[in-house]
User: Fold these one by one.
Assistant:
Number 1:
Amino acid sequence: MYLTGKIAIVTGASSGLGLSMCKKLIEKGTIVYGLARNKTALEKLREWAGDRFHPVILDITNSDAVTNWVDMKFHAGNIPDILINNAGIGYFGKVEDISLEQWDRMLQTNLSGIFYLTRKAVPLMKQSQNSSHIINIASVAGLVGNPQISGYNATKFGLRGFSEALFKELRYDNIKVSVIFPGSVATPFFDKTDIQSHKNMLQPEDVADTVIHLLETPDNFLISEITVRPLNPNAPDS
Ligand SMILES: NC(=O)c1ccc[n+]([C@@H]2O[C@H](COP(=O)([O-])OP(=O)(O)OC[C@H]3O[C@@H](n4cnc5c(N)ncnc54)[C@H](OP(=O)(O)O)[C@@H]3O)[C@@H](O)[C@H]2O)c1
């Protein structure tokens, strides 16, 4: 896909990987609708980006809000070419220590919110004359189960299944579906956990470059799944 002038929806635009992807897309000349709840962070990105960035204060777990926003903003004459389902949260700990609320928040954000947006974007993309692309940001936690991340694992394994099914369902409609499985990325994701970010983690800008590469592949060329990891994942001083 040639990115200049295309329209993208990116969730989780206020921080980390989503913020990096928005910046890379804007630099390519893409018009970006960036969704998140943090108004201040989205406005800061708007100041940097100018008219090509549209801040959208939206909680993706609110199905009515998602439906109303897509219905209000998009129609046959204004179709998103790209949907990046990036927003996600993780609560870690022993299975007996994960609260019901944490479990529900992870499922709502990492799975249901993605479904709410995707089910509204797909009918529009099916009408498009252009190739379209949906990219879902999973995690290596969508490939490998590990102690103390069972809930997060469940959502990211679920996202892998959702992505594979969609890729097979939508390929004949000229809609690409890709899922990315990153290892640890140095973002604020870890701020509320015991895990310390360090410089051997993947850098969000580098993961964003990979996303740009996926998007820029020729129309009949699909990278359906990609795993990216730090070569040496240990902290430099360990
Ligand atoms: N960091 C890692 O090591 C790593 C590794 C593999 C995969 N991932 C995945 O990468 C994605 C991005 O994570 P990150 O590392 O960039 O973390 P981050 O810096 O914490 O960013 C998470 C983003 O999700 C948004 N978000 C959360 N709940 C939302 C909701 N209900 N509605 C709308 N937006 C919501 C947040 O915005 P607001 O709070 O402003 O709403 C924020 O912009 C996630 O899916 C994560 O699971 C991360």
Note: DSSP finds six helices and seven strands in the chain.
Number 2:
Amino acid sequence: MRVVFWCDMEGVGGITKWDQVMAGAAQYEEGRRLYTEEINAAVRGAKKAGYKEIIVVDGHGAGGDYSFNSLIKDKLESGAEYVFGYRWGCYVEPLKSGCDAMLLPGAHAMAGTADGILCHTMSSQNFYNAYINGKAVGESGIVAAIAASFNVPTIFASGDEATCREVRDLLGKQVYCAQVKQSLNRFAARCLAPHDACALIEKTVHQALKNPKSWPKPLKLKLPVELKIELSNPEKSNDFIGRVGCEIVDPRTIVCRGKNFWEVWNNFWYQ
Ligand SMILES: [Zn+2]
């Protein structure tokens, strides 16, 4: 029994500002503490459900050497293994070698979501919108598609109301969601107290993992798959000149096609 958490920071309760998620910013240490507590809660939920192999991937690009390295190590829950410093969207070894489920604590809504706290898709500087087979997706959709390439279902997300809505819209009502905050605008929210957010996450992860029959199926995509990415600026398309499987449709649009989503993603995201 193996389970993988791909974690992010913007969806953590109490986090509403870039300052809380960017390395070196005044409120980053507070953000890290809140983040670490929620991930610990998710791990406790998985342990309670009987999971012995719990792999937690720090997926937040905080900047510099803190990228994918924001969890506070000496505060981490025991009974799990933690992956640090590995680029977002790339650590698929546990998916390749067999994994029961993918879970997304701390997730945020896709770029352009009116009520999405700190919403973006991968990087607000580089990308506007992403579409898989014509459907707009955020990071949760990209991760669900990566996991589904290895036949792994994405079964849980925590974050704000907009993120829960987005994940349900993509994966169906069966997906387990822990809503820890509700947007008032992109940088303001009504939040659960951190202790309550952690309790909700622990309970929801536990419920999800002990009921495998209730899980949504791995995201079904018509093959071959197409990923379309709208870039923030025309010069960004230079990175894709000559890239296998990727076509520069216009200076701000890249289309990548492949026989499954992992192949497409690998071409686009170039490990
Ligand atoms: Zn992040």
Note: Residues 225-269 form one domain.
